[in-house]
Amino acid sequence: MRAVILAGGKGTRLRPYTTLIPKPLVPLGGKYSILEIIIMQLAKAGFTEITLAVNHLSQLIMAYFGDGSRLGVKLNYSLEEGELSTIGPLTLISDLPENFLVMNGDILCDLDYRKFFEAHVASRDMVSVSSYRRQVRIDFGVLGSGVDGGLTEFREKPTYDFDVSMGIYCINRSVIEELPKGQPYGFDNLMIDGLANKRRIAIRPFNGYWLDIGRPDDYQYADDNFAELATKLGIGP
Known about the structure:
This protein is of the alpha/beta class. 26% of the residues lie in helices and 32% in strands. The protein has helices spanning 34-44, 58-65, 113-123, 173-177, 187-196, 216-224, 226-233, and strands spanning 2-7, 27-28, 32-33, 49-54, 74-79, 99-104, 107-109, 127-137, 141-145, 151-156, 159-172, 201-206, 210-212. It has a 7-stranded mixed beta sheet. Helix 2 links the parallel strand 4 (49-54) and strand 5 (74-79). It is globular, with a radius of gyration of 19 Å. 32% of the residues are buried.
Protein backbone atom coordinates (compact mmCIF):
# COMPACT_ATOMS: atom_id res chain seq x y z
CA MET A 1 0.00 0.00 0.00
CA ARG A 2 1.20 3.47 -0.91
CA ALA A 3 0.45 6.79 0.77
CA VAL A 4 1.15 10.41 -0.07
CA ILE A 5 1.35 12.96 2.74
CA LEU A 6 0.88 16.62 1.83
CA ALA A 7 3.56 18.43 3.83
CA GLY A 8 4.28 21.51 1.73
CA GLY A 9 2.19 24.17 3.45
CA LYS A 10 3.63 27.22 5.18
CA GLY A 11 1.61 26.72 8.34
CA THR A 12 0.65 30.39 8.56
CA ARG A 13 -2.30 29.67 10.87
CA LEU A 14 0.05 27.99 13.36
CA ARG A 15 2.46 30.87 13.79
CA PRO A 16 4.56 31.62 15.80
CA TYR A 17 5.29 27.88 16.15
CA THR A 18 6.06 27.62 12.43
CA THR A 19 8.28 30.68 12.11
CA LEU A 20 11.48 28.64 11.95
CA ILE A 21 10.31 25.07 11.35
CA PRO A 22 7.69 23.61 8.99
CA LYS A 23 4.35 22.70 10.53
CA PRO A 24 4.79 18.92 10.06
CA LEU A 25 7.93 19.06 12.26
CA VAL A 26 6.30 20.93 15.16
CA PRO A 27 6.87 18.66 18.21
CA LEU A 28 4.18 17.18 20.43
CA GLY A 29 4.84 16.17 24.01
CA GLY A 30 8.53 16.88 23.53
CA LYS A 31 8.84 13.51 21.79
CA TYR A 32 7.44 13.24 18.27
CA SER A 33 6.69 15.60 15.42
CA ILE A 34 3.18 15.61 13.94
CA LEU A 35 4.40 14.09 10.69
CA GLU A 36 6.39 11.45 12.57
CA ILE A 37 3.22 10.28 14.31
CA ILE A 38 1.37 10.00 10.99
CA ILE A 39 4.19 7.99 9.40
CA MET A 40 4.32 5.65 12.40
CA GLN A 41 0.58 5.08 12.15
CA LEU A 42 0.71 4.39 8.42
CA ALA A 43 3.62 1.98 8.85
CA LYS A 44 1.70 0.14 11.56
CA ALA A 45 -1.30 -0.08 9.19
CA GLY A 46 0.82 -1.78 6.54
CA PHE A 47 1.79 1.09 4.23
CA THR A 48 5.30 0.31 3.07
CA GLU A 49 6.03 3.28 0.80
CA ILE A 50 5.21 6.90 1.56
CA THR A 51 5.80 9.98 -0.56
CA LEU A 52 6.11 13.32 1.17
CA ALA A 53 4.96 16.21 -1.04
CA VAL A 54 7.10 19.07 0.26
CA ASN A 55 7.74 22.72 -0.49
CA HIS A 56 8.18 25.20 2.38
CA LEU A 57 11.41 24.45 4.32
CA SER A 58 11.57 21.11 2.52
CA GLN A 59 15.27 20.64 3.30
CA LEU A 60 14.49 20.39 7.01
CA ILE A 61 11.84 17.72 6.47
CA MET A 62 14.11 15.71 4.16
CA ALA A 63 17.03 15.95 6.58
CA TYR A 64 14.90 14.85 9.53
CA PHE A 65 13.26 11.80 7.92
CA GLY A 66 15.85 10.70 5.36
CA ASP A 67 14.90 7.50 3.57
CA GLY A 68 12.41 6.45 6.25
CA SER A 69 14.36 3.41 7.42
CA ARG A 70 14.34 4.72 11.00
CA LEU A 71 10.53 4.43 10.96
CA GLY A 72 10.38 1.17 9.02
CA VAL A 73 9.08 2.54 5.72
CA LYS A 74 10.44 3.59 2.35
CA LEU A 75 10.25 7.37 2.09
CA ASN A 76 10.63 9.46 -1.03
CA TYR A 77 9.96 13.11 -1.77
CA SER A 78 8.13 15.15 -4.36
CA LEU A 79 9.21 18.79 -4.41
CA GLU A 80 6.78 21.53 -5.41
CA GLU A 81 8.35 24.65 -6.87
CA GLY A 82 5.17 26.67 -6.36
CA GLU A 83 1.93 26.43 -4.40
CA LEU A 84 -0.22 23.75 -6.04
CA SER A 85 -3.00 23.48 -3.41
CA THR A 86 -4.17 20.06 -2.23
CA ILE A 87 -4.45 17.82 -5.30
CA GLY A 88 -2.05 19.58 -7.70
CA PRO A 89 1.08 18.11 -6.03
CA LEU A 90 -0.07 14.61 -6.97
CA THR A 91 0.38 15.41 -10.67
CA LEU A 92 4.15 15.65 -10.09
CA ILE A 93 4.43 12.05 -8.84
CA SER A 94 5.14 9.85 -11.85
CA ASP A 95 4.93 6.41 -10.23
CA LEU A 96 1.57 6.50 -8.48
CA PRO A 97 -0.03 3.05 -8.10
CA GLU A 98 -3.56 2.37 -9.30
CA ASN A 99 -4.98 3.33 -5.90
CA PHE A 100 -3.31 5.25 -3.10
CA LEU A 101 -4.06 7.10 0.12
CA VAL A 102 -3.59 10.87 0.38
CA MET A 103 -3.69 12.90 3.58
CA ASN A 104 -2.73 16.23 5.05
CA GLY A 105 0.38 16.30 7.18
CA ASP A 106 -1.22 18.00 10.19
CA ILE A 107 -3.88 15.50 11.26
CA LEU A 108 -4.12 13.44 14.42
CA CYS A 109 -6.73 10.68 14.32
CA ASP A 110 -7.26 7.00 15.07
CA LEU A 111 -8.77 6.10 11.70
CA ASP A 112 -8.06 2.53 10.56
CA TYR A 113 -6.08 3.53 7.46
CA ARG A 114 -5.83 -0.02 6.15
CA LYS A 115 -9.58 -0.60 6.42
CA PHE A 116 -10.28 2.74 4.75
CA PHE A 117 -7.93 1.92 1.86
CA GLU A 118 -9.23 -1.62 1.39
CA ALA A 119 -12.85 -0.43 1.35
CA HIS A 120 -11.96 2.05 -1.40
CA VAL A 121 -10.29 -0.63 -3.52
CA ALA A 122 -13.05 -3.18 -2.98
CA SER A 123 -15.75 -0.68 -3.99
CA ARG A 124 -13.83 0.42 -7.10
CA ASP A 125 -14.51 4.07 -6.31
CA MET A 126 -12.59 6.80 -8.08
CA VAL A 127 -12.36 8.90 -4.94
CA SER A 128 -13.11 8.10 -1.30
CA VAL A 129 -13.34 10.84 1.34
CA SER A 130 -13.19 10.24 5.07
CA SER A 131 -15.77 12.49 6.75
CA TYR A 132 -16.45 13.67 10.29
CA ARG A 133 -19.65 15.10 11.80
CA ARG A 134 -19.10 18.59 13.20
CA GLN A 135 -21.52 20.91 14.95
CA VAL A 136 -21.45 24.62 14.21
CA ARG A 137 -23.18 26.94 16.67
CA ILE A 138 -24.49 30.26 15.39
CA ASP A 139 -24.05 32.93 18.07
CA PHE A 140 -26.95 35.03 16.82
CA GLY A 141 -30.69 34.81 16.53
CA VAL A 142 -31.45 33.49 13.03
CA LEU A 143 -34.39 35.06 11.15
CA GLY A 144 -36.43 33.64 8.32
CA SER A 145 -38.56 35.86 6.10
CA GLY A 146 -41.04 35.45 3.29
CA VAL A 147 -41.26 37.20 -0.07
CA ASP A 148 -43.10 40.09 1.55
CA GLY A 149 -40.33 40.60 4.10
CA GLY A 150 -42.43 39.33 7.01
CA LEU A 151 -40.97 37.07 9.68
CA THR A 152 -41.63 33.38 9.02
CA GLU A 153 -39.19 31.70 11.37
CA PHE A 154 -36.92 32.46 14.30
CA ARG A 155 -34.22 30.31 15.89
CA GLU A 156 -32.18 31.51 18.86
CA LYS A 157 -28.49 30.60 18.49
CA PRO A 158 -29.14 27.35 16.57
CA THR A 159 -26.67 24.51 16.09
CA TYR A 160 -26.19 22.87 12.68
CA ASP A 161 -24.61 19.52 11.87
CA PHE A 162 -22.29 19.14 8.90
CA ASP A 163 -20.24 16.27 7.45
CA VAL A 164 -16.78 17.74 6.85
CA SER A 165 -13.77 16.38 5.02
CA MET A 166 -11.06 15.09 7.37
CA GLY A 167 -8.27 15.71 4.88
CA ILE A 168 -7.85 11.96 4.26
CA TYR A 169 -8.68 10.48 0.85
CA CYS A 170 -8.15 7.46 -1.36
CA ILE A 171 -7.83 8.20 -5.06
CA ASN A 172 -7.63 6.16 -8.24
CA ARG A 173 -4.66 7.14 -10.41
CA SER A 174 -6.89 7.76 -13.45
CA VAL A 175 -8.35 10.81 -11.69
CA ILE A 176 -4.91 12.40 -11.40
CA GLU A 177 -3.92 11.47 -14.96
CA GLU A 178 -6.76 13.67 -16.26
CA LEU A 179 -5.31 16.80 -14.61
CA PRO A 180 -2.73 19.20 -16.08
CA LYS A 181 0.71 18.56 -14.60
CA GLY A 182 2.10 21.06 -12.14
CA GLN A 183 -0.96 23.32 -12.04
CA PRO A 184 -2.79 24.46 -8.88
CA TYR A 185 -5.79 22.23 -8.18
CA GLY A 186 -7.53 21.89 -4.84
CA PHE A 187 -9.77 19.45 -3.05
CA ASP A 188 -12.64 21.85 -3.71
CA ASN A 189 -11.96 21.62 -7.45
CA LEU A 190 -11.91 17.82 -7.20
CA MET A 191 -15.32 17.76 -5.52
CA ILE A 192 -16.96 20.34 -7.79
CA ASP A 193 -15.59 18.76 -10.98
CA GLY A 194 -16.57 15.32 -9.68
CA LEU A 195 -20.16 16.45 -9.24
CA ALA A 196 -20.20 18.08 -12.68
CA ASN A 197 -18.80 14.93 -14.32
CA LYS A 198 -21.07 12.61 -12.30
CA ARG A 199 -18.03 10.81 -10.93
CA ARG A 200 -18.61 8.34 -8.12
CA ILE A 201 -17.17 9.87 -4.94
CA ALA A 202 -17.66 7.77 -1.82
CA ILE A 203 -18.12 9.48 1.54
CA ARG A 204 -16.98 7.24 4.39
CA PRO A 205 -18.11 8.55 7.81
CA PHE A 206 -15.76 8.26 10.78
CA ASN A 207 -16.73 8.78 14.42
CA GLY A 208 -13.45 8.19 16.24
CA TYR A 209 -10.85 10.74 17.31
CA TRP A 210 -9.86 13.48 14.84
CA LEU A 211 -7.98 16.72 15.37
CA ASP A 212 -6.76 19.04 12.63
CA ILE A 213 -3.78 20.89 14.09
CA GLY A 214 -4.21 24.05 12.08
CA ARG A 215 -4.58 26.63 14.84
CA PRO A 216 -2.44 27.47 17.88
CA ASP A 217 -5.24 26.49 20.28
CA ASP A 218 -5.55 23.03 18.70
CA TYR A 219 -1.81 22.51 18.79
CA GLN A 220 -1.57 23.64 22.40
CA TYR A 221 -4.32 21.21 23.38
CA ALA A 222 -2.58 18.32 21.63
CA ASP A 223 0.76 19.20 23.19
CA ASP A 224 -0.67 19.55 26.70
CA ASN A 225 -2.61 16.28 26.45
CA PHE A 226 -0.09 14.28 24.46
CA ALA A 227 0.22 11.37 26.90
CA GLU A 228 -3.52 10.72 26.64
CA LEU A 229 -3.61 11.27 22.87
CA ALA A 230 -0.65 8.97 22.25
CA THR A 231 -2.64 6.03 23.61
CA LYS A 232 -5.62 6.90 21.41
CA LEU A 233 -3.35 7.19 18.38
CA GLY A 234 -1.75 3.81 19.03
CA ILE A 235 1.83 5.04 19.37
CA GLY A 236 2.33 4.65 23.12
CA PRO A 237 3.11 7.38 25.64
